[in-house]
């Protein structure tokens, strides 16, 4: 069978292989996401209003939270050249501004014929509570320079 991972920056990932990244969220994240998307929901900006909701305070946009998963797959595993083909994420708990989150992935399956992976994905907060969980399918472009 042809090696579909030829030319990719990293070798074919193995089932069970894991990677993660941590980040502390900030108002700058909220502002940058708003600049990109136009999302000005008051739960991201109005602390008084947000504190009176079930959220208990300002929260970052879901895209800020899941964006950390983008970094894990593009930088760590499967690595450079990787893009999402499909995501299935369940948002279970909001992430507050100033909270440290940990984006975690685990390889469920990596095809041999094409550089496609299926991943378990999860984001947990500093209390260990799951904020986002689900799965993703990725494709890794062959970007390694040949010698």
Key features of this structure:
about 150 residues; 5-stranded antiparallel β-sheet; elongated
Concise synopsis of the structure shown:
This protein is of the alpha+beta class.
Structural commentary:
With 147 residues, this protein is an alpha+beta fold. It has one domain (18-140): Hotdog Thioesterase (Thiol Ester Dehydrase, Chain A). The protein has three helices and five strands. It has helices at 27-37, 47-51, 62-76; strands at 18-24, 82-91, 100-110, 116-125, 130-140. The mean pLDDT is 94.
How many DSSP E strands? Answer: 5
CATH class category name: Alpha Beta
Based on the structure given, which CATH architecture is correct? Roll
Task: Report the C-alpha radius of gyration, rounded.
Answer: 17 Å
Low-confidence stretches: none
Distance between the terminal alpha carbons, to the nearest Å?
Answer: 24 Å
Helix content: 10-25%
Secondary-structure map:
Blueprint: E1 18-24, H1 27-37, H2 47-51, H3 62-76, E2 82-91, E3 100-110, E4 116-125, E5 130-140
């Amino acid at each position: 069978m042809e090696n579909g991972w030829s030319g990719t920056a990293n070798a074919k990932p193995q089932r069970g292989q894991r990677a993660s990244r941590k980040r502390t969220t900030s108002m700058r994240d909220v502002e940058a996401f708003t600049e990109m998307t136009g999302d000005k929901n008051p739960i991201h900006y109005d602390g008084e209003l947000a504190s009176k909701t079930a959220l208990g305070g300002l929260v970052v946009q879901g895209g800020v939270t899941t964006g950390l998963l983008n970094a894990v797959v593009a930088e760590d595993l499967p690595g450079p050249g990787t893009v999402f083909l499909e995501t299935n994420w369940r948002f279970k708990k909001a992430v507050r501004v100033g909270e440290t989150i940990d984006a975690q992935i685990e390889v469920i399956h990596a095809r041999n014929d094409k550089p496609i992976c299926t991943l378990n994905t999860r984001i947990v907060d500093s209390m260990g509570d799951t904020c986002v969980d689900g799965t993703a399918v990725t494709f890794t472009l062959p970007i390694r320079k040949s010698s």
